[in-house]
Amino acid sequence: MAKTSMRSPDGRATIHDQRLERxxxxxxxxxxxxxxxxxxxxxxxxxxxDQNTLKVGARGPTLIEDFHFREKIFHFxxxxxxxxxxxxxxxxxxxxxxxxxxxxxxxxxxxxxxxxERTPVFVRFSTVAGSKGSFDLARDVRGFAVKFYTxxxxxxxxxxxIPVFFIQDAIKFPxxxxxxxxxxxxxFPQAQSAHDNFWDFISLTPESMHMIMWVMSDRAIPRSFRxxxxxxxxxxxxxxxxxxxxxxxxxxxxxxxxxxVAWNEAVKINGADPDYHRRDLWExxxxxxxxxxxxxxxLFDQDFADSFDFDVLDPTKIIPEEVLEPxxxxxxxxxxxxxxxxxETEQVAFMTQNVPPGIDFSNDPLLQGRNFSYLDTQLKRLxxxxxxxxxxxxxxxxxxxxxxxxxxxxxxxxxRANYQPNSWGEGPRESPLHGFSxxxxxxxxxxxxxxxxxxxxxxxxxxxxxISQTDVEQRHIIMALTFELSKCENPAxxxxxxxHLLNIDETLGKAVADRLGIAELPEPAxxxxxxxxxxxxxxxxxxxxxxxxxxxxxxVGVLVSEQADASLLKELQAAIEAEGAVMEVIAAKVGxxxxxxxxxxxxxxxxxxxxxxxxxxxxxxxxxxxxxRLVNEATARDFVADAFAHCKFIAFTTEATPLMEMxxxxxxxxxxxxxxxxxxxxxxxxxxxxxxxxxxxxxxVKL
Length: 703
Ligand code: HDE
Known about the structure:
Elements (H helix, E strand, L loop, with lengths): L1 E6 L6 E9 L5 E4 L35 H11 L12 E10 L18 E10 L14 E9 L2 E8 L12 H8 L15 H8 L5 H7 L14 E2 L4 E4 L5 E10 L8 H10 L3 H11 L5 E9 L1 H6 L19 E10 L4 H6 L12 E3 L3 H18 L77 H8 L3 H16 L4 H14 L1 H11 L38 E6 L5 H13 L3 E6 L5 E2 L5 E2 L3 E2 L10 E5 L2 H7 L3 H12 L4 E3 L4 H6 L10 E3 L5 H9 L14
Parallel strand pairs: 14-15, 14-19, 15-18, 19-20, 20-21
Antiparallel strand pairs: 1-2, 2-3, 4-5, 4-12, 5-6, 6-7, 8-10, 9-10, 9-13, 10-11, 11-12, 16-17
Helix pairs in contact: 2-3, 3-12, 4-10, 11-13, 12-13
This protein binds CIS-heme D hydroxychlorin gamma-spirolactone 17R, 18S.
C-alpha cells in the first residue's frame, strides 16, 4: 500500500490524497477514502475493480456477464457524434453583448431596446473545409457564429469572417462543399482548397470570383480569431413596433484590429502548433485579456436598395463602407471558456432561422436555403428533435410549448393538457402582441427556377476588392492564387482560372499566368456583364490600411542563453506588458537559464518547441558564448531566419550577431532590425512593433 499527494505544476489544482493498492498483477488501484467519491456505473452501482475484466481464472476468457466492462466500453464506443458537415473544426467561448443605445426606431427586438443592457452569448469560431481534427491555419473562410440568449428567445447570427459567399443560390451549396472537401476517390487533400476539384468547380462558377479574391487574400489566414472581422453576409431586416422595416447588414469589428499571418508562416504554424487559434483564444481568456468586437450595422431602406449598383439580395456582393457607413451599436466580450468542450462547443446548434421578434429575413436565396438546412443538420448531428434540451442550446428566457417526448427528452410536461386550444386552463397561449410576426412584404410572381438578372455581374466587385488592396496585399493574392493553381494537375483548370482573373484585373491575370508558366495567355472568360472599372477603391477592404497601430494582445518570443542580461530582460518584460502584450521565453532547455544577476529565468519553450512563427516579434537576448552554442542548431537558425523572412521586428544584443549571420540575416538589413545595446532601444523596439510587420522587407526576401 502507498499514499501519494500530488500538486499540478502551476500549483493550482491539488489531487486528493489517495490510497493506492497494488493488485496481484502489479497494477495500481486508486481506492476511495475520506471525501473521495466512490466510483459507480452509470446506473449508480458501486465499482470495486476498474482495472480488470471479469474472467474465468486470472488467465482465462472474459465473461459477458461483466456488466461494468460492457457498459464502460459501450459508452466509449458511442462517444462520438457526427462532426459538422462543414465548419467541423471550431472553438467557442461564452461572453456578453452590451447594447450601446436604444434602436427602437428600427427594431422592436428586445436586445436592442435598453442602453447598457447585457445579453449572454456563446460564440463559435471555425474553419469550413477541414475535419474536426484538422489544423487551425488552413487557408479558409472562418465561421463567426454568435448565439445571443435574448429575453425573447435565441438569436443566432451565423456569420463568417468574409462578407460574401461562393454561390448565389443555396441549391449549389453541396456542390461547392463537395468540391473543396477531400476528393472522394483518394480522400485527400485535407483542409485545403489547393486541388483540382475545387478549382475545377470554381473555374466553372463565375459567381464565385468575388469570394475567391477574399479567400486568396490574407483574410483567409488570420493571426487570431481575436483579430478578424465577422459578417452576417446576407441582407436582413429590422422591424420596429410600427411594423416598419429597415434593411440591415451586420458587421463585427475586432477591438484589437485586424491581423493576418504570411502564407509561409501559416504552413509552419500548422506543424508547430496545429491548435494555434484555439490556444490563442484559450490563453487570452484565461489570462483575463477578454477579446472584444463591436457590432456595426449598415442600415438602408428600399430606395437605397433600388438605387445601389448591385442587388442587395445577392450574397456575392457587399455594400462598401464608404458608400454606407456602418454604425456601432454594441460590443461583444468573450470572458469565459466552456467547462466542457463537447457539451458546449461541439453540441452547440446554430440556426439562421433563430431570430427574435424585430429581426427578419430578406429574400436572399442563400439565406432562405440556410433557414431550411440548419434545423435539418441538427437532427443528424445531435440525433434527437430534443437538441434544445441540451443546456447550451436552451433559451435562457422562459419558454413554454406543447412539444413532447422523443429521444432523450429531458424536459417532460406535467399535467393533462398537451394540446391547445384546451379548456383545462392549462398550458401556454399565443400572443399576437408579443409574438414573432413576419414582415408582411408583398410577394407575387410565377413559380420559376431563375437567377435574377440583377445578380449577373460577377467581376466588378472582385476587381474593386483587388484594387482596394495595398501592393503587399495584392502580391499576397497573386502568390496565393499561384500556389493553389500550381497544385492543380490539370492545366485546363489553371487556364480557365487565369481567363477569369483577366476579367478581374489584367495585371492580376498576367502575373498569375506568368508565375504559373502559362506561355500563351487565354482569352478573358466570357462575361455575362462586362467588368466595371468605375468602382473606386474601398480602403476599408484592406487589412494593412486599417492596422490597429497597437501591439496590444500580441506576443514577443525572447530567445535567451545562460547568463543573459537580467536587467535587459526585466526592461523588455515591463515594456512588452505595458503594451498589453505577452512575453514568452525560449531557451535551449525548457528548465530555463540562470541570468547575469544569478536569478533564474524560467523558459516557456525549448527552441524546437517555440519557433518564431508562434510570435509577432522576437528578441535575441544572448551572450557571446550563448550565441556560439546556438549557431550549430538548425532550429535556432530557423528561429531567426523565419522571423526575418516573415517581416517581423527583431531586437537583439550585439552578441547575437554570429547566430544571425549563420541564419543569413544581416543585423543591419533594415529598420526592423533593432540592436538592444543603446539606451532607449527597448522603447524603439516596442514603438516599431505597433506596426506589427515590416512589410517593406518582403520584396527583398525570397521565401
Ligand atoms: Fe453554413 N452550415 N451553410 N454558412 N455555416 C452549417 O450547420 C449551409 C453559409 C456557417 O459554429 C451547418 O450546424 C448552407 C454562409 C457557420 O456550429 C449546415 C449554406 C455562411 C457554420 C450549413 C450555408 C455560413 C455553418 C453545418 C448555403 C456565412 C458553423 C453544421 C445556403 C454567412 C456554425 C451546422 C457552428 C454551419 C448549411 C452557407 C456560416 C449544414 C445550406 C453563407 C459559421 O446547416
